[in-house]
Amino acid sequence: xxxxxxxxxxxxxxxxxxxxxxxxxxxxxxxxxxxxxxxxxxxxxxxxxxxxxxxxxxxxxxxxxxxxxxxxxxxxxxxxxxxxxxxxxxxxxxxxxxxxxxxxxxxxxxxxxxxxxxxxxxxxxxxxxxxxxxxxxxxxxxxxxxxxxxxxxxxxxxxxxxxxxxxxxxxxxxxxxxxxxxxxxxxxxxxxxxxxxxxxxxxxxxxxxxxxxxxxxxxxxxxxxxxxxxxxxxxxxxxxxxxxxxxxxxxxxxxxxxxxxxxxxxxxxxxxxxxxxxxxxxxxxxxxxxxxxxxxxxxxxxxxxxxxxxxxxxxxxxxxxxxxxxxxxxxxxxxxx
Length: 337
Hints:
alpha/beta, Peroxisomal Thiolase, Chain A, domain 1, 2 domains, globular, five-stranded mixed β-sheet, 13 strands
């Protein structure tokens, strides 16, 4: 339960990360059988070799529940002690109720406040900012942020430009109240949006502008993307947002231990790494195995980095993403399990 004040304000601490991906692996070779494409073409343009698809009986909240349990187990925190559940997603089970409410109930966080964030691939960083604000204002002690996406149901399987890119998965973090004297916490955020570019990445049907109850063309029910414009936007804002944040915090790139970028396209990531000027050895990617998992992609990389011994207690982690909206977000935080 979250009240007017849930305790004394403290320093928000990035305390745990965790992830869940469905079992089914969909390789480029499998897509070759139904699309006019090849493994070589997909890899050369995106860096993606395979992605995961949810089982027919799974919905987004099912993925979020599994990831939530992994995060709480890693932190050693009972679900009953979670004050707020935030689920960044643009592929919810329903328009309402929220994925967060369904997830909170399923894991046993029965009294927690719960809501979704719709900032697409920037959503996880937006969620971290919300979590930090809850904790540092004293409104919450434990905030669960779980990016969860099931894009295999939202892409046109006949559209080569989109269906090769996206995969399903869920991952996130637990943000906890820490001692202000010893916790490094979240050093800062840089976030923004340009709604005038909204049409460059959109699902036209299903909202109040074009309800599903009115006639529409089949392709309008799926993701539509202006790939060239999104690429230009992404390469620009990833560099600008990251450098703006580091400059404001007076932190040099050399002080960053790990850069975690949204996993959308290998060429975008490589461009950003070069422009930011960070050592490529301080960058970790998993795009080739999972594709673009939208709001789940950044925490999914972090969970794998931890498991691989690439993310250590006390590391300074730089996160940066972009997505539909068009949105962007970057954050700098200490990993303090």
